[in-house]
Amino acid sequence: MSTITRPSRAPDTTGWDVERIRQDFPALHQQVHGKPLVYLDNAATTQKPQAVIDALTAYYTRDNANIHRGVHLLSERATDAYESARRRIQRHLNAASPHEIVFVRQATEAINLVAASFGRTAVGAGDEIVISAIEHHANIVPWQMLCEEKGARLKVVPVDDRGDLIMDEYARLLGSRTRLVAITQVSNALGTITPIVEIIRLAHRENIPVLVDGAQAAPHQAVDVQALDCDFFVFSGHKTYGPTGIGVLYGKESRLERMPPYQGGGDMIKLVTFEKTIYNDLPYKFEAGTPHIAGAIGLATALDYMAGLGLDRIAAWEHELLEYGTELLQAVPGVRLIGTARRKAAVLSFVLDGVHPHDVGTILDHEGVAVRAGHHCAMPVMARFGVPATVRASLGLYNTPAELETLATAVRTAREIIGG
Amino acid sequence: MSELRELYQQVILDHNRKPRNFRVLEGANRTAEGYNPLCGDQMKLYLNVEDGVIKDAAFQGKGCAISKASASMMTAGVIGKRVDEAEALFQRVHAMLTSDTASPGDGAVDGVGKLVVFAGVREFPSRIKCAVLPWHTLRAALSGAAEPVSTE
């Protein structure tokens, strides 16, 4: 086992009691393969604080009922909790109205909703949709499907070798046929923070609406949809310390009003006859069927938890971890970081010379270190950087400098075992 | 660490570093592509089958140590075998990799020869696909399947 020379600059932990914060996350305190768990797969999903677990238990223990239909007390309580979760999310995103918050299963479903509903009415043959080269498959495939159906074209903003969008190319792609720009705020595979304000400004100058994929941004920083002035913003609850199966579509009311329903069913209607159905108002028009009530409540609790720690402080802590982790990994022989954008969120994607990422992943797992090894649902990104896959360590608010040291040591071990 | 050494045996590491039959086989009369969408492993297998006998075998592709070593040792193992013998070997290897009970010394690893080095893969459920991929690709090549083989 190699020893690590401690780099010069360890994160300043002043005022951030990470050990106390870790006590809030029961899943962190376990051993895997006889080693303490080092959970560095937060971009895939985050662990849940006890407060979220308790909120789910409390809901099912006390309030469980269907919403918006019962006259009985439990249904009223469930409805109140669900709608107050919606208002909590509205505040979190600084949306103008709770009507602009649509509960969905996750960011993927939110994008599919916009592609199906907005796309059905606003996109036609010869029209164009602009995405970027660093999108998650969830922000590629729905648009491809739409383009195929409508005879529209997908335009892709290229990235440079660091993983930054080439903004001149972006500006050139915006034209009279562009119907929508759909771009991520933070790349899941590379950690690139895109210049989303500028992206939105340039699109709006041409009256083109913008969908922001916030799945990787929402866990790491405060979001203000009114300040961004985005038309749509999507994120997943399970990446923001909330439950799986719940996510959010934010849409400007004026946009959502003009869009047809996504799915038909109960709750999204006002009146149904066999001749005609009158659809419900926003946001219920887009929420067919019984929703994930507990999930919405759990997500609101998770956002409370993050707000309690301070979103800016979370971002600052993770940034320090990122810098420290970058320094540690760059000191490991054979490591090449993939994604070195000027502004990055807490993602360390890398390859190790002579060792396939899948093998690195297995060896790290045996050292207790959980990372993702693969293409991260971003195969075009892998192709762009000429690698079949990467190892990705993605950080969360509860990670520690010591965990990054364990990661770097384990990477050295991988090189020793597979050898060069 | 001992479990890891069980997985990454020297023979496997050696085949990873210096894969045998790692080339395009000119004049191959059977080919198939294998793909593991989970980790991006990709391989193309080339066979030359004459009179029901695998006269030559080779592969190309990108993959982890396990999949590369598996493909390397598989090609080395099936050259000169009849198609039905290769099929029988597939069955034995598959059983070794996926059965719950097999370990060196058990009946389940009988008849796999040097391929017994892959017995340790069974302890790593997420890696079984890597070892099996070349074998599924072999089967596809022998049966003349047109679609690439996927482990998903």
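qc> Helices of chain B lie at 2-7, 10-17, 65-78, 83-98, 128-143.
qc> done
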